[in-house]
Design brief:
ribosomal protein, RNA-binding, three-stranded antiparallel sheet, about 0% helix, Ribosomal_uL24_KOW, SH3 type barrels, mainly beta
Length: about 100
């Protein structure tokens, strides 16, 4: 999967198209990601030991990883990425438009 935890991504389709956020968690087996403040859903929560008050809670819903692109600060938009191996043997992701490398 091309998206990892702590990446900044841009949503390219759906009701939150154009929103930018940080990836909270990725699920490679399902091909889904959780993005901060994107795809907010309401959940009816019962009171528990940890959460004394029940009620309606807003939380992030998962998105298909194919519906987000990694944000490139140099290009100032979501871009497709590739993989390359640096001279020191480290494998990194890079922007296909400007060849900017992303920290892993």
């Amino acid at each position: 999967m091309h998206i990892k935890k702590d990446d900044i991504v841009v949503v390219i389709s759906g009701k939150d198209k154009g929103k930018k956020g940080k990836v909270i968690q990725s699920y490679p087996k399902d091909g889904k990601v959780l993005v901060e403040n994107v795809n907010m859903v309401t959940k009816h929560q019962k009171p528990t030991q940890q959460m004394q008050q029940g009620g309606i809670v807003k939380q992030e819903g998962s998105l298909q990883a194919s519906n987000v692109l990694i944000y490139c600060p140099k290009c100032d938009k979501g871009v497709r990425t590739g993989h390359k191996v640096l001279s020191d043997g480290k494998k990194v992701r890079y922007c296909k438009k400007c060849n900017e490398t992303f920290n892993n």
